[in-house]
C-alpha cells in the first residue's frame, strides 16, 4: 500500500508508549496529560495521551527511510515535492519548559538537503495551552531518501518528576498528496 497521504510518524500520540522512537534522556507517557488542557478538543489528535519530559534535556526521534516505506524514487526526485511537518506542544501551568523540534531532509548518504529547527521557552504563566508548530518544506531538491524528525525538551525549574515539555500529534506528510 502506498504511503502517500498518510502520517509517516509511527506512534505520534504515545498510544504505544515509546515504541518506534529512538529515545535519549528520560520520558514518560501521560493519559490524560497533567497540568494542561485536554487533548481531546484538538481534532488532529486522536485520544488524550501525550509524551512528557522531565528535568534533564530529553529528545526522541524517528529516522524515516522513504524507499522502505514505499515512496518511489522517481516521484521523490520531482522538484514539486513538499513535506508538511506538524507537532503539538505544551507546558504545565505550574512549571515552565523548553521545547525544540528539528526536521532534516536527507539524501541516500544521509547528508542534509534541507533542515529546519524551531525552539521556544514557555513560562508557567502561559502554560496549560497546547500550541501547534507547522512548517512545509517546498521545492525539495532531487535525492530525498530519508527524513529525520526529532523533538524534545525539559522543564525550566529542574524539578524531579514530569514537569517538562509535553508533545503529541507529530506529523510528517507529503504535502502534494495532502499528507
Per-chain topology:
Elements lengths: L21 E3 L2 E4 L19 E4 L4 E8 H4 L3 H4 L6 E8 L6 E10 L5 E11 L8 E7 L8 E10 L10 E9 L5
Antiparallel strand pairs: 1-4, 2-3, 3-10, 4-9, 5-8, 5-10, 6-7, 6-9
Shape: elongated
Oligomer: single chain
Q: What is the succession of H and E elements?
A: EEEEHHEEEEEE
In percent terms, what proportion of residues is strand? Answer: 35-45%
- Mean pLDDT, to the nearest integer, reads 90
Give helix % range.
Answer: under 10%
Question: Unreliable stretches, pLDDT < 50, 5 or more residues?
Answer: none
| Order of the strands making up the biggest sheet | 1-4-9-6-7
* Main sheet: strands, sense, barrel: 5 strands, antiparallel
Count of DSSP E strands?
10
Distance between the termini: 15 Å
Class per helix and strand makeup: mainly beta
